[in-house]
Design brief:
The complex is a heterodimer. Chain A is α/β, with parallel strands linked by helices. Chain A is built from 13 helices and 26 strands. The longest helix of chain A has 17 residues, at 32-48. The termini of chain B are close together. The chains are: A alpha/beta, B mainly alpha. The interface between A and B is medium-sized, with 28 and 24 residues.
Chain lengths: 503, 89
């Protein structure tokens, strides 16, 4: 039997379609035979360096055929991969490397990661290693990858996902969206972001091609449309903000991008007006909203069968995917029914194994709640508030806590506050999210400085600690922070201040 | 034809970039040839905000097909684009 481990996909695709294009990136084009051979060499190379089943291996390299081979290669070696954001500050990467206890880090020609972990190149010094599948014995509950996300205490937290967590989602997606060897999938999301799982492993599952979208093109809608056209991309998957750019700024006419048959989005709320615009431009394409915190891959989905009606305020997140069960728990602890709001719980094949090195947080989020659970079984409480529709589907309405989503990235405001508090001249700080004009959110940070503290030093200090997507849009220094009657920082009093007359 | 002052255009765009959060070094280091895209100072969201800001501050319209990397690579290219657009208005 094959297909129960995530790297079985590339191996099966190589047996069935060795000469088919697996990866297109810039001018490079790799067949499945090439991709699998390189992945095997990387796996053998890692084994040679002592990497074993259950180890974690970092991948710090630009997205390329070699780097995609590295992901498959780490899995083939029996280890789990930890994709690292090359644009993150060195300090954050060192913390992640130390927390994950990386046995090795794979890197490209950039080299020298400075992580204090043995390095191996994805493109050099591999020719001596065999190109055959190493065939390491694993089971589907072994760890496949660890994704680090923003943590509320200032330390990034590692979400542990198994082979089964990923294959359950990939197999559902490949079936539901009818992926075949003739498809060309986009690879827009960075590899440390869970949208990449569908791009990389969904394409391998179907022996389809994946087209790497250069990071530099990502900001330019006309370029993105040109890439879709030129490469004949059939399935696009990204955060809505990128699609909103294509809807409004790509100079498209109705019926453009004829190859694009399926448009998938996830990671944040798609502003209804922009989705309507995009659907009018691409009447031939199928649209679907995929929902799921990193901890559950994707757990629900909603097919947007018709352009949303005028009165529609939010695109639903829909219903559970195959082999996954979701329900909402109201404030009274009972299951929320139609018309009611509650916190979304998820149970099933896509739910993570836990947070790396953090049994406390794991116990807080993986809970024994739900009906018909087996003795050791748990459900994941998402912290997301949803409204239950008459037909039983769900619509996301907000968060229970201080977490926000911006451009698909999950950000704990406490993480930014912790970074500000770590700046020596900062006496107090508070960070709030305020809505912007386009339906997204902006981050405003407030700091009270010690006497003699320099406002100009704050942003440079934050940049040393936080990745760019977490940097505040506005950073204000104030004499004091407003307080509630109980002496807590009054965030509600801060929020309207920043929005000026917009409220 | 609107008359745009080069120094004013440069200062307006520069101020906007300095205030929108992704610039961390001393303001004086944001030179006309500093690579805005490769450094991540200007990302997809920042780019859309910048375009809106330019259209609001100057009597020009930036067409979709002008939003290309070569026109937003650095401050000098953006100023050049604004002047080109002002000529055709």
């Amino acid at each position: 039997m094959s297909g129960y481990l995530l790297h079985h996909y590339v191996e099966a695709a190589t047996r069935r379609h060795p000469a088919s294009v697996a990866v297109l990136a810039g001018g490079a084009s790799w067949t499945y035979e090439q991709l699998n051979a390189r992945a095997n060499q990387i796996a053998h190379g890692l084994r040679d360096r002592g990497v074993r089943r259950g180890d974690r291996v970092g991948v710090l390299a630009a997205k390329s055929p070699e780097t995609i081979a590295a992901l498959h290669g780490v899995l083939k070696s029996g280890a789990a991969y930890v994709a690292l954001d090359a644009n993150a500050p060195a300090e954050r990467l060192r913390r992640i490397a130390a927390d994950a206890g990386l046995a090795a880090v794979l890197t490209d020609s950039l080299g020298a990661t400075g992580l204090g972990v043995p390095e191996m190149s994805v493109d050099r010094g591999l020719s001596g290693f065999p190109t055959d599948d190493p065939g390491i014995a694993l089971i589907d509950s072994d760890l496949a990858y660890v994704l680090y996300t923003s943590g509320s205490t200032g330390a990034p937290k590692g979400v542990m996902l198994t082979h089964r967590n990923a294959t359950a989602f990939v197999q559902w997606a490949a079936g539901e969206f009818g992926l075949t060897a003739r498809d060309r999938l986009s690879s827009h999301a960075p590899l440390h972001f869970d949208l990449s799982i569908l791009d990389i492993f969904g394409s391998a599952c179907a022996a389809a091609s994946v087209v790497v979208i250069p990071a530099k093109a990502a900001a330019f809608p006309v370029r993105l449309a040109d890439l879709i056209d030129r490469h004949g991309i059939t399935v696009w998957y990204s955060v809505p903000s990128v699609l909103a750019g294509i809807a409004t700024r790509a100079a498209l006419r109705p019926g453009a991008l004829p190859t694009l048959r399926t448009v998938l989005f996830a990671g944040e709320v798609f502003p209804v007006g922009q989705l309507r615009t995009l659907m009018a431009l691409l009447p031939h394409a199928r649209f679907a909203n995929l929902y799921g915190p990193t901890e559950t891959n994707v757990c629900t989905w909603h097919e947007v069968a018709e352009p949303p009606a005028d009165g529609c305020r939010r695109i639903p997140i829909g219903r559970a995917i195959d082999n996954t069960e979701v329900w909402a728990v109201g404030a009274d602890g009972r299951r929320a029914g139609p018309g009611e709001t509650g916190e979304l719980y998820v149970r099933g094949a896509t739910v993570m194994r836990g947070y790396w090195n953090d049994p406390g947080l794991t116990a807080e989020r993986l809970v024994r709640q739900g009906t018909g659970l087996m003795p050791d079984e748990v459900a994941y409480r998402t912290g997301d508030l949803v409204e239950v529709a008459a037909d039983g589907g769900f619509t996301f309405v907000g968060r229970r806590d201080n977490q926000i989503k911006r451009r698909g990235y999950r950000i704990e405001l406490g993480d930014i506050e912790a970074a500000l508090a770590a700046v020596p001249s900062v006496a107090e700080s508070a960070v709030v999210a305020v809505p912007d004009a386009t339906g997204g959110v902006e981050i405003e940070a407030y700091a009270v400085l010690d006497a003699g503290g320099e406002p100009a030093g704050l942003l440079p200090a934050l940049r040393e600690m936080l990745p760019a997507y977490m940097l505040p849009d506005r950073l204000r220094t104030v004499d004091h922070l407003p307080r509630t009657s109980t002496g807590k920082v009054d965030r509600q009093a801060l929020a309207p201040r920043g929005t000026g007359s917009a409220r | 034809m609107p008359q745009l002052d080069s120094a004013d255009v440069m200062a307006t765009i520069r101020d906007h970039l300095l205030q929108t959060g992704h610039w961390a070094d001393p303001p004086a280091d944001l030179a006309p040839d500093y690579p805005l895209l490769d450094s991540g100072v200007l990302d997809s969201l920042g780019l859309m905000r910048l375009v809106a800001h330019i259209e609001e501050r100057f009597p020009i319209r930036i067409d979709d097909v002008d939003i290309l990397p070569e026109n937003f690579e650095d401050l000098a290219s953006i100023v050049r684009l604004v002047h080109e657009k002002a000529l055709v208005e």
